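Morning!

This is the sequence you dropped in the shared folder:
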Amino acid sequence: MKFPWKAFFIGLLGVAAACWVVSYAELVITYIQLGILQFPPVVLGLFLPILLVNRLLRRVARWLSLSSQELIIIYCMMLLGTMVASRGLMEKLLPLLVSPNYFANESNSWAQLFFPHIRRWMVPFDPSGPPRQKVAVRFFEGLRYGEPIPWGDWLGPLLAWLILVAAVFTTFFCLASILRRQWVDHEKLSFPLVQLPLEMAREETSTPFFRNRLTWIGIGLPAAVFLVNGLSSWYPSVPQITLQYQINQLFVSRPWNAMYYTPAFLSFAAVGFLYLLPSELLFALWFFFVLTRVQDVVYAAYGMEVGDMPLYPTRLYIGYQVMGAYMVLVGYFFYSSWPYLKGVWARALKPVPEDDSRELLPYRTAVIGLVLGFTTAVAWAHAAGLSLWAAFGAMFVYMFIVAIIMARSTAECGLLMTETSFRPVDIYRLFAPTHMLGPSNMTAFAFLDPSLFRDQRGLVLTGFLDGLKMADGVGGSKRVFGAAFVVALLAALVLAAVFQLWLPYHRGGITMYSYVYQANNIWAFQDYAPAMAGQSLMDWHRQVFFVVGVLVALFLAIMRTRFAWWPFHPLAYALSASWTLIVFWFPCFVAWLVKTLILRYGGMRLYVRMRPFFLGMILGEFGMAVFWAVVSWIFNAPAPFFPWP
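The structure's back. Tokens below.
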């Protein structure tokens, strides 16, 4: 294919639009989070007008129209740009860099505990100075009339953090290049999140997706529901259609009232994606989530009181079980991929004639880039205050354990959200109390946890892998797609940083989205502060639960390897404690029930026939999310609740 200059140009415009819409909608309007999912509604909202204009051009000026390859390049650029602008990076990083200074006070003693160990080049304030310096106060409370944004104070720290970001993204870029052939060609994972954009782009050539009546019925169902709910938010006399229910509130007596937060969110879009999964995987996803709640009841019945996982919405005994499961699963994936990975390593050490031109990167380049990216990230973390062993361990867990499991959760499970249940420091807590890390390590972790390790939504590794799968789907050059990835990331880094500095300095971050400006940015400091003061203890429960998780996951992996009929997928067990399944366990149940009934009474023929209906539900829900975000922005009015918080 000729180099797609038109697609790159339109893609850059789309990245700029996505960065602005995500920044304003999520941080200012706050009603609808348009960018936090691995299939962001804002990308669909921007992609649809491009498709409509392209269809018109095909009729009146065909030479100006875009091919399906060019359309998917544009989609991938907007996808990665959205991830960077939302939880994938910028919404976590910028508030973090001034939060310890703004929120430090006499009662929490952060100035005494953390400031002496903060590297000056990491933050826009002076760690040797007092709390509540001007650069931080104006970020959270807004500029006074006539004051300029202090761009100069931010430039140095952002360039320093850019080194870490570039190292992480490079590692993920190379990792995606290595994993692609194993996951796509050998294991043939389904990648459910790419199916809808491929269907929409192929419409330009052959697939009658938008001409199918079931597609429009699927679009109309959620569109009608959210139209009614939107009107209800404006006019209370209009009845609202309930899409969430808190099940644990039904139980008021012990031990049932010990059940942790258990909402049932009904997302039409999630059901649409999950319909594409195998029935046994759907069953395992909701089954293992329900099993976590059964454990709550059993522990309470026996009078056992165990705390919560620090900074995660799950119990300690569940969090450490899934930590053990992660370790087993990565080992299981490595074992099953060993022949392929051994070949990659051999070709990296000594190039062989085998053609790898169809891959994103030559294998030798991918391996060298992965090693250099990882080494740079470790060196940066060490310079930021982590001891060398802590820097190596934390980055290894993040990049090669957590990130791989998160990417697998989208590629195989089709989950719309990537979220884990533990941080690298929680592994250290298996062996020693937190305070033994020392103040320098804990201070560095207080910055790295919220910026990289804790909230995994918007993980760019999944964007790279989805993009490569879509490149296969339209017969595009992976290296051209790779160039588009890099251009989109560079543009998004600059644009999102500018937008998300301009907004809080002009509006006051304290009045904006509370999770970004008053929660994720300070939770790690609150978690480490007691340990900095020497207040942390060992808890033997952690080791027991970790071993249980290892044994259960090992059993599940062995059974799945030996028996094709085995319905309990170890990946579902590993994800059972995550916010992802708290939000999407009920759609998993609904999709499993519906798909089971369709296959039983209509067979594979009816299943295939109903596919446009379920893809249409994705379009309907996400299209209405974008519609109500625009309406809310224009009229400064409330928007309806969408079931993916």
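Headline: The chain has a mean pLDDT of 94.

More detail when I'm at my desk.
O.
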